[in-house]
Design a protein that fits this description.
The protein is of the alpha/beta class. The chain is about 30% helix and about 20% strand. It has helices at about 10-25, 40, 45-60, 80-100, 185-190, 205-215, 235-240, 290-295, 310-320, 330-335, 355-360; strands at about 1-5, 5-10, 30, 105-110, 110-115, 120, 125-130, 150, 175, 195-200, 220-230, 260-265, 270-275, 275-285, 300-305, 340-345. The strands form 3 sheets. Strands 8, 9, 10, 11, 12, 13, 14, 15 and 16 form a 9-stranded mixed β-sheet that branches. A 4-stranded mixed β-sheet has the order 1-7-6-5, with no helix packed on it. A 3-stranded parallel β-sheet has the order 2-3-4, with helices on one face. The radius of gyration is 24 Å and the shape is globular.
Length: about 375
């Protein structure tokens, strides 16, 4: 069996990754030994929230008098509460199972194990990961849809004996920006476990970037354009803002491809929300710092995609990296994002939202 993308795990994130990859034209398989439904539905968010809702209603009923109402003999029927929880979870799980068994995917209901950098054993068969367009065998292609696996959680890379606890340990992979790499020891630890590229956290100042670059030969990556990823929430406020549950979100985040703007009570831009991801309100822009980044040894430059002409964005940054200085390059970037505020404060060791050049002008 040959696939472009193998998604290991059929939970909320796994299904979203499979759906995105298939929509882009990839041949996709999903591997999950079951029970199908995913952690959030079966044992995490949904059961907890269902039980808490019963508690919330009981607490509200006890305040009936505040609303001119009368309620007496209030009791909690625990078996009935559990039955309601089980019924709702079954409904959510059945919905997810129907999604996983959609004819667009191949569902492999079995544990998987890597037998080589390009092959996994699943369902008693060997599955080869290939680039269908060229026929070339790739190292691995999983939920991110990239040509390498991007690890965004330490569970995937630290040494362990439990199944699934360290799928990437000792295998080539990329470290994403949500794994905190703040010092040389952490960087060395990740490289020892197979990291071939490390995307450093967006909040690191230039001094720290330089120290890390000097301490290792591993390829380092820095985000130089786009709203900055700050955190991942356990809840999806994007779905909640539309009156939807996280596990039945209907992917409403695609209505705000650049993130849903969040303001303070005073109407000041504060953050942006994209699904469960919390982003900066400003757009990070290190075009003016490209030369300094290259000189300190940074070799990869990440452009976060936005709803604009990203080809032009890439060309402007390519020109900057190649030493060309297009006239009004930063003005052109501002036009491409409709005049959104830029920031480079983290790089200069000040508040991340700050545009340092403007601060210098004010002084």
């Amino acid at each position: 069996m040959d696939y472009d993308v193998i998604v290991i795990g059929g939970g909320s994130a796994g299904y979203a990754a499979a759906d995105t990859a298939q929509s882009a034209g990839a041949k996709v398989a999903i591997a999950d030994p079951g029970p199908l439904g995913g952690l959030c539905i079966l044992r995490g968010c949904m059961p907890t929230k269902t039980l808490l809702r019963s508690s919330d209603v009981m607490a509200l009923m006890r305040r009936a008098g505040e609303f001119g109402l009368s309620a007496s003999d209030l009791q909690a029927d625990l078996p009935a509460i559990i039955d309601r929880k089980n019924r709702l979870i079954r409904e959510f799980a059945d919905y997810r199972i129907r999604q996983l068994k959609d004819s667009r995917f191949t569902l492999i209901e079995d544990r998987v194990a890597f037998v080589s950098p390009n092959e996994i054993e699943a369902g008693g068969k060997t599955v080869l990961l290939t680039n269908e367009g060229t026929g070339n065998i790739l190292r691995v292609e999983l939920a991110t849809g990239a040509w390498s696996v991007v690890a965004s959680d330490l569970e995937g890379i630290r040494a362990a004996t439990e199944p699934y606890a360290a799928l990437l340990a000792g295998r080539p992979h990329v470290i994403g920006p949500f794994i905190n790499v703040y010092n040389e020891a952490t960087l060395a630890y990740l490289v020892e476990r197979g990291a071939t590229r490390v995307c450093l956290p967006v909040e690191l100042p230039a001094e720290s970037l330089a120290v890390l670059a000097a301490s290792s030969d591993v390829e380092l990556e820095v985000q130089v354009f786009g709203r900055l990823p700050l955190a991942i929430s356990a809840r999806c406020y994007h779905a909640r803002s539309c009156g939807l549950l996280k596990d039945n979100c209907q992917f409403v985040c695609d209505q705000d491809p650049d993130g849903m703007d969040v303001e303070t009570l005073d109407g000041v831009p504060f953050l942006a929300i994209n699904g469960p991801q919390i982003l900066s309100s400003t757009y990070g822009n290190l075009w003016g710092e490209l030369k300094a980044l290259k000189e300190m040894g940074i070799r990869r430059f990440r452009l976060s995609p936005h709803n604009t002409d990203m080809v032009q964005v890439a060309r402007l940054f390519r020109d900057g990296l190649d030493g060309r200085d297009p006239p009004q390059a930063e003005d052109r970037l501002a036009e491409l994002v409709n005049g959104a505020a830029f920031s480079n404060g983290f790089f200069h060791g000040v508040a991340g939202w700050a545009p340092v050049a403007k601060l210098a002008e004010a002084e």
